[in-house]
C-alpha cells in the first residue's frame, strides 16, 4: 500500500467543521500530488446519527478515475481503531494548528461501458481456452511458462501424429492390408509364449516339461488341503447335485467321478481340481474390487498368488486397481492347460476347458500349440454341447519343433 499522498482540509462553518482528508492509493504510489484534484461528497441525511458522517472522495487523472469512501465494507479498519491528526505549522508565529483527520483508500474506478466488448466469441470458447486467456492476462511467470510449454507440446504432438499417419499410410500402400493382418496374427502367437509356464525343453519325462512345482509351490500345495477336503470326501449324490447347480466347471465335475481310491492320490487330485476350478472362476472376473475375490474359503496364500501372478495394475478414477487383462487371461489359460495335463496323465480334452473358460476355439488352439502340444480330434463325451468333435491336447516327447504357420510362409512369398 502506498503512503499518504495528499492532505485536504474542509473549511466551512466551525460548528460543522469536517476532519482533514488523508488519501492513499491501492494500486501504487502517487508521484506528483500537486497534479491531483479531489472532490468530496457528503450525505444529505444530516439528521441520521450515522449517515450524516458518510463521505465519498473522488479524483480523476488522464488515465483513470479513483474513488474512496468511509462507510462501505472495504473501508480501512484503522479509522475505527485509532485517531489521526494533521498539523499545520505557521512559520511566522511558529505555532501549529491541529485538525482531526480521516484516511481514505482510493481505488481505480473501472467502467464496464468504456469499451464495448463483443462477448460472442468469448462465450463460444471452451473452459480451457478461457483459463488460458486469464493466465495470459493475469497469470504469474510460472503459469505463463507452463502455458507456453503446453502449447509447444500440443504443436509437437500434432506434428508427430501427422508423421505417424503418413508413415502408416506408406506401409499399408507398400505391403497391403492382408500381409499386415498376417503379421499381427503371427506376432500375437509369439507374444503368447511370454505368459506360458516355464518350459524345460530338455526334459526326459513329460511331467518335467512343465514342472508341477512351477504351477503350485510346496507351500501353496499344502494350503490347498483344507479347501480341497470337500472334494476328497464327495459322494456320487453330491456330484449329481453339483452338476445340476453348475457350481463348478464341467472339467472338474467330470473328473470328480473318477477320483482314485488310494488316499494319497485321491487327495492330490482333489487339490489340483480345486485349484483348477478356482483359476477358471478367477479368469471370468475383469476388475478385482475385493480384497479376497474368491471368498473367505480360499487360503490367503492362494489369493495372493492369484493377485500377484494373474492380474496387472491399472490406474482408474484416482485409485490403483487389479485388472485381468487379455494377456493375463492368456496366462491363466496356459496354467489351466498345464495343470489339466498333470491331472490327466498329460492328455486332456481342450474343448471342455475351452467351453468352461468361454473361449473361441482358435484362441485355445493357439495357446495349446504354443505350449508344444500335439492337437488331435476325438469324439466328445456324451452329454456335452451338441456332442461336438473335441480336440485333445497331448504332451509327448520329443517336443514338436515350433514352425512358422502357413500364413507366415505365404506372407514371405508375397514379399
UniProtKB/TrEMBL annotation:
InterPro entries: RNA_pol-assoc_fac_A49-like
Source organism (scientific name): Accipiter nisus (Eurasian sparrowhawk)
Phylogenetic classification of the source organism: Eukaryota, Metazoa, Chordata, Craniata, Vertebrata
Lineage top rank: taxon: Eukaryota
UniProt family annotation: Belongs to the eukaryotic RPA49/POLR1E RNA polymerase subunit family.
Protein name: RNA polymerase I subunit E
Subcellular locations according to the entry: Nucleus, Nucleolus
GO biological process, one term: DNA-templated transcription
Coiled-coil annotated spans: none
Keyword Lyase: no
GO CC term, one of those recorded: DNA-directed RNA polymerase complex
Renumbered residue ranges of the record's region Disordered: 396-415
Main location: nucleus
Molecular function via GO: DNA binding
Keywords assigned by UniProt, alphabetized: DNA-directed RNA polymerase, Nucleus, Transcription
Keyword Transcription among record annotations: yes
Amino acid at each position: 500500500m502506498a503512503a499518504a499522498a495528499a492532505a485536504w482540509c474542509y473549511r466551512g462553518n466551525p460548528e460543522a467543521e469536517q476532519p482533514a482528508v488523508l488519501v492513499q492509493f491501492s494500486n501504487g504510489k502517487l508521484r506528483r500530488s500537486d497534479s491531483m484534484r479531489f472532490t468530496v461528497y457528503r450525505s444529505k441525511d444530516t439528521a441520521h446519527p450515522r449517515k450524516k458522517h458518510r463521505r465519498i472522495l473522488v479524483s480523476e487523472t488522464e488515465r483513470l478515475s479513483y474513488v474512496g469512501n468511509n462507510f462501505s465494507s472495504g473501508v480501512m479498519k484503522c479509522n475505527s481503531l485509532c485517531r489521526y491528526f494533521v498539523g499545520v505549522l505557521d512559520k511566522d508565529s511558529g505555532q501549529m494548528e491541529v485538525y482531526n483527520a480521516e484516511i481514505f483508500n482510493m481505488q481505480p474506478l473501472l467502467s464496464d461501458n468504456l469499451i464495448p466488448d463483443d462477448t460472442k466469441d468469448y462465450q463460444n470458447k471452451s473452459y480451457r481456452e478461457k483459463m488460458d486467456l486469464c493466465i495470459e492476462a493475469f497469470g504469474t511467470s510460472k503459469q505463463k511458462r507452463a502455458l507456453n510449454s503446453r502449447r509447444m507440446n500440443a504443436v509437437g504432438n500434432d506434428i508427430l501424429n501427422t508423421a505417424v499417419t503418413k508413415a502408416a499410410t506408406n506401409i499399408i500402400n507398400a505391403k497391403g492390408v492382408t500381409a499386415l493382418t498376417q503379421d499381427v496374427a503371427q506376432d500375437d502367437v509369439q507374444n503368447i509364449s511370454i505368459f506360458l509356464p516355464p518350459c524345460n525343453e530338455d526334459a526326459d519325462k513329460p511331467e518335467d516339461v512343465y514342472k508341477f512345482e512351477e504351477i503350485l509351490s510346496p507351500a501353496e500345495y499344502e494350503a490347498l488341503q483344507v479347501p480341497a477336503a470337500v472334494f476328497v470326501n464327495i459322494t456320487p449324490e453330491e456330484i449329481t447335485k453339483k452338476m445340476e447347480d453348475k457350481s463348478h466347471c464341467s472339467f472338474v465335475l467330470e473328473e470328480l467321478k473318477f477320483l482314485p481310491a488310494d488316499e494319497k492320490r485321491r487327495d492330490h487330485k482333489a487339490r489340483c481340481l480345486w485349484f483348477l476350478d478356482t483359476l477358471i472362476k478367477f479368469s471370468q472376473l475383469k476388475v478385482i474390487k475385493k480384497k479376497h475375490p474368491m471368498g473367505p474359503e480360499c487360503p490367503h496364500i492362494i489369493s495372493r498368488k492369484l493377485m500377484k501372478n494373474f492380474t496387472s495394475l491399472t490406474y482408474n478414477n484416482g485409485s490403483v486397481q487389479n485388472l485381468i487383462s487379455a494377456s493375463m487371461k492368456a496366462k491363466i489359460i496356459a496354467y489351466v492347460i498345464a495343470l489339466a495335463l498333470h491331472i490327466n496323465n498329460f492328455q486332456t480334452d481342450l474343448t471342455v476347458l475351452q467351453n468352461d473358460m468361454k473361449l473361441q476355439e482358435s484362441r485355445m488352439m493357439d495357446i495349446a500349440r504354443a505350449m508344444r502340444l500335439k492337437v488331435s480330434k476325438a469324439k466328445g463325451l456324451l452329454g456335452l454341447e451338441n456332442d461336438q468333435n473335441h480336440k485333445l491336447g497331448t504332451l509327448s516327447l520329443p517336443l514338436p519343433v515350433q514352425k512358422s504357420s502357413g500364413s507366415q510362409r505365404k506372407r514371405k512369398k508375397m514379399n
